[in-house]
Automatic annotation (TrEMBL):
<dbReference type="InterPro" id="IPR008571">
    <property type="entry name" value="HerA-like"/>
</dbReference>
<comment type="similarity">
    <text>Belongs to the HerA family.</text>
</comment>
<dbReference type="InterPro" id="IPR002789">
    <property type="entry name" value="HerA_central"/>
</dbReference>
<dbReference type="Pfam" id="PF01935">
    <property type="entry name" value="DUF87"/>
</dbReference>
<feature type="domain" description="Helicase HerA central">
    <location>
        <begin position="144"/>
        <end position="376"/>
    </location>
</feature>
<protein>
    <recommendedName>
        <fullName>Helicase HerA central domain-containing protein</fullName>
    </recommendedName>
</protein>
Amino acid sequence: MTDINGDDASKYRLIGDRVLGYRFAAPHDAELYLGDVLKITDSVKGLTFFAKVTDLLHDCNFSDPKWDTRPHTEHFYGIGEDVFILVEAMPLGYVGGDGAFRKPRTLPAKFSRVERPESRDFAFLAQVMGEIEVGVMKTGQGVMKDVRVALHAQVMRQHMGVFATTGMGKSNFMKVFCASCMQAREFGLLIVDPHGEYVAGGRSSSGEATMGLLHYQAGRDGLEVFSTRPESFRRKYHLNQLYLDYDDFRAPDLLLLYEHSPPQREVVEMLESTPGSEVIDFFQSTDFATFDAETYTGRHPRIANDLKNFSPSTLSVMQRRITGMMNRNRDFFRRQGSSIPDILKALHENKVVLIDIPGISEQSELFVLSIITRRIMRSHQGEEAGGEGEPKQVLITIEEAQRVLGSGSGSTRTFREAAMEGRKFGVGLCVVTQQPKNIDARVLAQLNTFVVMGLSDRGDRDTIASSAKQDLSRLDTEIQTLERGEAVISTIGIPFPVSTRIHLFEEYIADLNKKPAATPIDDGLEKTF
């Protein structure tokens, strides 16, 4: 028995017998990793196949099943050609003579040669990548720096999910995504930041200092910030002040802030289409201890008539809740004057719109996001009804999305409407969560782009695998072992799930800032007399 030569490529030979699952033998000392992408050259058909390693196990040609536990095993058996690594791999597809990539509807010839690909072997991927760059292709423990991974802008209206446990690099991904959107200017992106980490940087979950979107100076024209921070901070960074007014509010927004009894929910539904300023004025100016719709002489007889059958105690509770809502949000909620027209304008100019509200309560964060989401939906539905061509495309980010898109929740109509119908009007959702299993399955079914950044919980991984449009079930082990800053991305337009090393935001914007910007019109002219 002759010891195997590790450089003998003939040992890497396909021995599988299924079109949807490959197996091949590799030398016992071969350095292979889960997630490695390998090339299979079929000289019989003239095709080049690609496959991803999904499992590795030791195997041998010995008939004795316990050969490796016998005394003096190495003396009698040795580790040579009959001992090898059995590799299980998932087919990704193949490239024919025309250079086009196709799904794996055939299988390579028996004993086809298996080898590691080079970057040039993935030239076909450059033709199918989109405009929103997020990282480079990962294969096993390494990366292919020449193979960039970029999402397609036109599929963002079909919703995206970003799934990551704490510490896996979710915030870094979102900032890289924002920077690419600022550069590409292909659609409007709305992101609400209650932690204040996106605008000028902050601290990562591991305590490291991070940069913010304002540090991407070359893309500043693609960013609009509306903030509740002090005036000195806003002036320093040239930020807009965030304001919402009473008419931006609608009664269903209260459902996000409080638990409601059936009668209280009926009040909300009764007032759903009533302008917020009228609802607020009615409840502020009415004494419900003596309220009688028949003798009411105030400014809102229609509201009084609509609520005539409700008990004074129910109306008093609603009055206290509206007062509490106003007090909680008094820093940015006022009678007249709203930032929403400017927010919509910036979104329709394909900018990243950052709502910077650090230190705000969770209820207030959802209050702001609900109001803006509803206004975006109504604006786009109006464009559709008006028939004035293709509506502008907007992507709305919902952090910790399980709060408003969980199964059984009836208080999030605005977000569910956007998930179920938004794509018809050019409105997509970016659903960000650590707990995909807690998202309503009907909402997950609407997502066409999945960015999976490491999930330790099997229930979460099973949920993702059952909802993704591409098969992620074979990648379960790889997803479980993803390291920080790594992701498996499944999206329309890219033919197979791509393992990705996400750019480090600070390095990415440093590269973007080096790219030449547009030259000012007065560049080179004398500026003095």
